[in-house]
């Protein structure tokens, strides 16, 4: 197969590296590519939405999986879909909704491939009810280093090593997913505007269980008694009866347009204290407390998908996302982390706080019971020091960072955050004894 030399980045655009990229169209072509890998190894890449470098492999091979784009079958009665791994969640939703079928786990963007969703074992706003993506995978076909196809299920250790294994156990080429049923493509949303972080977390803790989806946005510019003020939004799928008359005619409509693509023209420093304060004030004020509003997929789940390539707005230096989970009972550490961000002068607009439910069997899957917080921080002087301080806080509180969002921590920190990593390494070593699967992230964090 022809390989093209390409410079790749993650969504944060912080660490470009050049690799030979191939786009196989069949499983046999994936096997052929693996056989051609040299000592710089190979890694699968989906839609490049991980923020850092897990889907890059400097000087080696990268398998762009978007060529495996076939949905093999939809079983409406059993509520399952059998799909190639390069298919995006966006495409799946468009094909499934007419059958009243819904993917139980949806991240903050639909532009994620099935393989990438498995590789990071992604979570959504429904984690406290639905768990993470691999909790809904019935089986997957994994091509391992020896070119063999393994069909693995949740009974297999290899399944759980691949869930959240960041592409380092092999290439997922196909998966069978379990689905939920919905009457409509809309949500019935309760919004609460809350004046400070303590009250926001208290409110979110009280009756999250009544809602399928739950998430808070919080303000990183508010100080003093308004520290961490925010907007709590929680929702359930709207039933047909919930919809206003004009929406009832087409209740399963995929109502989620992309309106424009952001051009690559932004200078560094566009997002500063002044612009961030103005944005946060506006965002806070525009969402007063209101219960029972009907919102479409984009409004409630994926507002960012209205804009294509919005990461360009951060300018050429790029940005990183800092996402941690800190166990329940350490709310003091969550509050301290917000205070540290405010004091540092680093600003973020997309600030998310959510409560995770139980984790699963995977040694590297990120979610565990606790508070997960995510902020998008533009790269500028002093950011490394802030993040190092946050790492220490997260470690002391017994928390961890999310590999799909990670781009700058140390191997020592990851080793301490993921105490079952050796268990994962053992399963991986059994199927890839010579270590052909490797990525920039795997080298940087000494994962394998
Ligand atoms: C705006 C935005 C919002 C997001 N919101 C969330 C969120 O709410 N929750 C969440 O969990 N994540 C979220 N993410 C992160 C995203 O869901 C994950 O990074 C996901 O892995 C990206 O999938 P991808 O197809 O782009 O994979 P890539 O970024 O290309 O790759 C990610 C990892 O998956 C591996 N991989 C990809 N395809 C395969 C394959 N076929 N076989 C084996 N391994 C493979 C890669 O090797 C790599 O390690 C968000 C990202 C963005 C940009």
From TrEMBL:
Gene3D superfamilies: 3.30.465.10, Vanillyl-alcohol Oxidase, Chain A, domain 4 (1.10.45.10). GO terms for cellular component: membrane. Pfam families: ALO, FAD_binding_4. GO terms for molecular function: D-arabinono-1,4-lactone oxidase activity; FAD binding. Coiled coil: none annotated. InterPro entries: ALO_C, FAD-bd_PCMH, FAD-bd_PCMH-like_sf, FAD-bd_PCMH_sub2, FAD_lactone_oxidase-like, Oxid_FAD_bind_N, Vanillyl_alc_oxidase_C-sub2. Keywords: Oxidoreductase. The keyword Oxidoreductase applies. Residues 14-182 form the FAD-binding PCMH-type domain. PANTHER family: D-ARABINONO-1,4-LACTONE OXIDASE, L-GULONOLACTONE OXIDASE. This is FAD-binding oxidoreductase.
């Amino acid at each position: 197969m022809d390989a093209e030399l390409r410079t790749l980045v993650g969504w944060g655009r912080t660490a470009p590296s050049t690799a030979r990229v191939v786009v196989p169209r069949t499983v046999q072509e994936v096997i052929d590519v693996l056989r051609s890998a040299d000592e710089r190894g190979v890694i699968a890449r989906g839609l490049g939405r991980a923020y850092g470098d897990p889907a890059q492999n400097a000087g080696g091979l990268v398998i762009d999986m978007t060529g495996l784009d076939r949905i093999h079958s939809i079983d409406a009665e059993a509520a399952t879909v059998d799909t190639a791994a390069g298919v995006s969640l966006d495409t799946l939703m468009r094909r499934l909704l007419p059958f009243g079928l819904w993917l139980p786990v949806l991240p903050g963007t639909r532009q994620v491939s099935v393989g990438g969703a498995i590789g990071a074992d992604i979570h959504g706003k429904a984690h406290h009810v639905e768990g993470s993506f691999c909790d809904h995978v019935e089986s997957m076909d994994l091509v391992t280093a020896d070119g063999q196809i393994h069909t693995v299920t949740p009974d297999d250790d290899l399944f759980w090593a691949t869930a959240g294994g960041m592409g380092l156990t092999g290439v997922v080429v196909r998966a069978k997913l379990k689905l939920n049923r919905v009457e409509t493509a809309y949500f019935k949303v309760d919004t609460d505007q809350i004046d400070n972080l303590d009250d926001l977390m208290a409110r979110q803790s009280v009756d999250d269980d009544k809602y399928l989806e739950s998430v808070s946005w919080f303000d990183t510019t508010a100080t003093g008694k308004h520290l961490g003020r925010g907007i709590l939004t929680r929702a359930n799928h709207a039933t047909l009866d919930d919809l206003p008359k004009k929406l009832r005619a087409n209740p399963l409509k995929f109502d989620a347009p992309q309106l424009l693509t952001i051009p690559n023209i932004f200078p560094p420093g566009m997002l500063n204290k002044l612009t961030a304060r103005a944005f946060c004030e506006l965002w806070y004020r525009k969402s007063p407390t209101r219960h029972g509003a009907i919102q479409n997929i984009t409004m409630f789940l994926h507002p960012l998908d209205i804009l294509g390539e919005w990461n360009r707005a951060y300018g050429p230096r790029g940005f990183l996302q800092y996402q941690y989970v800190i166990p329940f009972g350490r709310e003091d550490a969550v509050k301290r982390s917000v205070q540290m961000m405010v004091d540092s002068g680093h600003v973020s607009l997309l600030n998310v706080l959510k409560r995770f439910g139980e984790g699963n069997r995977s040694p590297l899957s990120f979610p565990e019971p606790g508070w997960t917080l995510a902020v998008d921080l533009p790269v500028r002087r002093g950011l490394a020091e802030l993040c190092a301080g946050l790492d220490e806080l997260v470690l002391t509180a017994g928390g961890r960072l999310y590999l799909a969002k990670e781009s700058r921590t140390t191997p020592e920190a990851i080793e301490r955050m993921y105490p079952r990593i050796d268990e994962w390494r053992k399963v991986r070593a059994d199927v890839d004894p010579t270590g052909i699967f490797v990525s920039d992230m795997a080298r940087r964090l000494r994962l394998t």
